[in-house]
Specification:
- By secondary structure, the chain is of the alpha/beta class.
- It folds into 2 domains: 2-180, 3-Layer(aba) Sandwich (Dna Topoisomerase Vi A Subunit, Chain: A, domain 2), CATH 3.40.1360.10; 202-268, Arc Repressor Mutant, subunit A, CATH 1.10.10.
- The protein has helices spanning 8-20, 46-60, 77-90, 104-114, 155-158, 167-183, 205-209, 219-229, 236-248; strands at residues 2-5, 27-30, 96-101, 124-129, 134-135, 141-142, 163-164, 187-192, 195-199, 217-218, 252-256, 264-268.
- The protein has a 5-stranded mixed sheet with strand order 2-1-3-4-7, with helices on both faces. A 3-stranded antiparallel sheet has the order 10-12-11. A two-stranded antiparallel sheet has the order 5-6.
- Helix 4 links the parallel strand 3 (96-101) and strand 4 (124-129).
- The N and C termini lie far apart (85 Å).
Length: 280
């Protein structure tokens, strides 16, 4: 059994669950990219994959994650999938369990992955925790958005949701993903179930600008406010990139070095003084 998750924190909580229930024993593999943002055009070709990598280089330039696209610190997801397929081919008894919560990150990753596993129908299982209640550490009922929010003990119940990816899903989901890839948009949003819709890269800009005031603020503070108050959120690296673009376009002012989010401050652009009217 090979468990697939899409966020680093999911690895840790699922590992804790496996320690509580030996029937879940298996390798945990993370798909590292966030396929809810960035270009998808021709993503299964070398050229399309390189275009996506270059986009990430541009997004992460100058920040904490500058260089990780090429320094080997993040596994290559294409190689990860090639290794999975090799294990499935070499061991007919091997199975894959894909764990996904109801968020755009997991669902986008599911679509990207399952489109490459059509040859292994019956051996690929999905555990989609869609609108399902769980018990929190404090004993309250809640509906998790991310896997890592679920206490490890609750995964023992969650495993009962495992089911094979159906023939229909192997036919329809890759087609749906191809359609999304061909739209060539920058941001995916989850409307419900597994339905993704797309918007342009500037989706979050207007709401981000709402947190920029006439007083100097650290970029980190603006991003924190956005993440705590906005309905649709994304990763802080993406938001930092958008703030830098707002500054470069002249829509906001900055002081400090445009590197990490704690290295510079932002305020709204000062209005140009009104010109004196000509005497009559």
């Amino acid at each position: 059994m090979i468990h697939i998750v899409f966020q680093r924190n999911d690895v840790d909580v699922l590992g804790s669950a496996i320690q509580l229930d030996s029937s879940l024993q298996g390798e945990i593999v993370q798909i590292c990219d966030d396929f809810a943002v960035g270009p998808l055009k021709d993503i299964y070709t070398d050229e399309g994959w390189e275009n996506r990598k270059q986009w990430w280089r541009d997004v992460l330039a100058g920040g904490d994650y500058d260089g990780i696209v090429d320094d080997g610190s993040v596994p290559d997801d294409r190689k990860t999938v090639a290794d999975l397929i090799n294990k499935l081919q070499n061991d007919p008894a091997e199975t894959i369990w894909i764990w996904a919560a109801q968020n755009k990150h997991d669902v986008s990753g599911y679509y990207w992955l399952v489109s490459q596993l059509k040859d292994f129908q019956g051996r690929v299982f999905i555990l989609y925790l869609n609108n399902l209640p769980f018990i929190s550490e404090k004993g309250n009922i809640f509906y998790p958005v991310n896997l890592f929010q679920i206490p490890a003990r609750e995964f023992i119940k969650a495993k009962k949701l495992s089911r094979p990816v159906t023939t229909g899903e192997f036919e329809i989901d890759p087609d749906e993903w191809t359609k999304l890839c061909n739209e060539d948009k920058g941001v995916r949003l989850l409307e419900g179930g597994k339905k993704l819709v797309q918007r342009d890269h500037d989706l979050y800009d207007e709401e981000l600008k709402g947190f920029i005031t006439g007083e100097w603020q650290k970029a980190s503070k603006i991003i924190h406010h956005f993440l705590s108050k906005a309905k649709n959120i994304t990763g802080d690296a993406y938001l930092l990139w958008r703030l830098k673009l707002l500054i470069q376009s002249g829509e906001a002012e900055a002081q400090g070095e445009l590197k990490n989010m704690k290295d510079f401050e932002i305020k709204s652009k000062a209005a140009a003084p009104a010109s004196n009217p000509l005497p009559v």
